[in-house]
Amino acid sequence: MQRLRIEDWLAAQEGTAHHSRALAAGFTRYAIDTAVSAGRIRRLPRGWIAARGVRPEIERAIAEGGRLTCVSAAKAHGLWTPPHPDSALHLRVDPRSGRHDKRDLVLHWSVGPSPVGRYQLLDPVINVLEAVSRCLAFREALTVWESAVRRTELTPELLGRVPWRPESARRLAATASTLSDSGIETLVVDGLRPFGLRVRQQVIVDEYPVDLLVGERLVVQVDGAHHLEQRQRRRDIRGDARLALRGYTVLRFDYQQILFDWPHVERTILGAVTQGLHRRR
Predict the structure, then answer these.
(1) What is the mean pLDDT of residues 256-274?
(2) Closest Cα partner for 278 from 247, 233, 242, 234?
(3) What does the alpha-carbon distance between residue 267 and residue 264 come to, in Å, rounded to a whole number?
(4) CA-based end-to-end distance of the chain
């Protein structure tokens, strides 16, 4: 039976592993040295070895004695992340560690709520969310948290039970648990607050409930995360038409637009206000 080559074993470890893990897996020092001498694998700082094609951000994490976290790790976990003009790498490092080369780095010195293995190079999702809560503005952080709820096994209930240290994380956990209901509407209210507009939530207009009323005549309807049922959709269309016939302007946005394309939502609402569609005519 042919013995597994160390480069193939490394490929199964996402391209890199600590020297001690290779020894524990049954590879001898001689086998490792031979593979290095033949150019099949490389030695990295701090006792790590790597196959060819290791991602640069992984090598940088190893060199700094840290692991990917925040938006850098969110991308690696397949979570949605907001666009940023800079390409800085976010690393979680030991608060007791020494000097670091801080060029193009954002260092996270805090310890996340979830335990992490000694040779783990990627923060678990829970710790990623904690770092995001400290690093990003609330709206941007919420998009990452909401993406984690949709794409991983995390649930709003689980997030609510984590003993988050930063207040920002506790607020995000509380909001993530209500996004399918009034929480998503609150994001619209928060987004419009800087413009001094009068915005009311859950208003009855002509015996028809509307999510948001801007001024006197501009209705903003919000479709939640699970707004998919066809009968409900038909009722919404019928209600929107009824309001339009009574002189209201109705704008409808869905969950994805509000969370991930807020500039479009903001431009559309402000465009309607600019035309005076929020005033009684």
Answers:
(1) 94
(2) 247
(3) 5
(4) 85
* Residue tagged 């150019």 (tokens): 39
pTM of the model: 0.78
Rounded to 10°, the helix 262-274/182-192 angle is 60
Is the predicted pLDDT of residue 58 greater than 50, yes or no?
A: yes
Higher pLDDT, 175 or 85: 175
In the sheet where 249-254 sits, what is the strand order?
199-205, 208-214, 218-223, 249-254
DSSP H or E stretch at residue 137: none
Burial of 217 (0-12, 13-18, 19+ CB in 10 A): buried
Report how far residue 38's alpha carbon sits from residue 41's, in angstroms, rounded to the nearest whole number. 8
Has residue 35 got a pLDDT over 70?
yes
pLDDT beyond 70 at 85: no
Nearest-Å Rg of the Cα atoms of the chain is 25
> Two tokens at 24?
């524990």
Query: What contacts 5, CB < 8 A, 6 or more positions away?
Result: 35, 40
What is the CB neighbour count within 10 angstroms for residue 271? 11
Beta-strand relationship, 67-68 and 208-214: unpaired
DSSP-assigned letter for residue 122: B
Sequence-distant (6+) residues with CB within 8 A of 134 are 108, 110, 166, 168, 169
Q: Measured between alpha carbons, how far is 188 from 270 in angstroms, rounded to an integer?
A: 12
- C-alpha distances (whole Å) from 108 to each of 9, 117, 134, 172 are 31, 17, 9, 19
User: How many angstroms separate the CA atoms of 110 and 251, rounded?
Assistant: 43
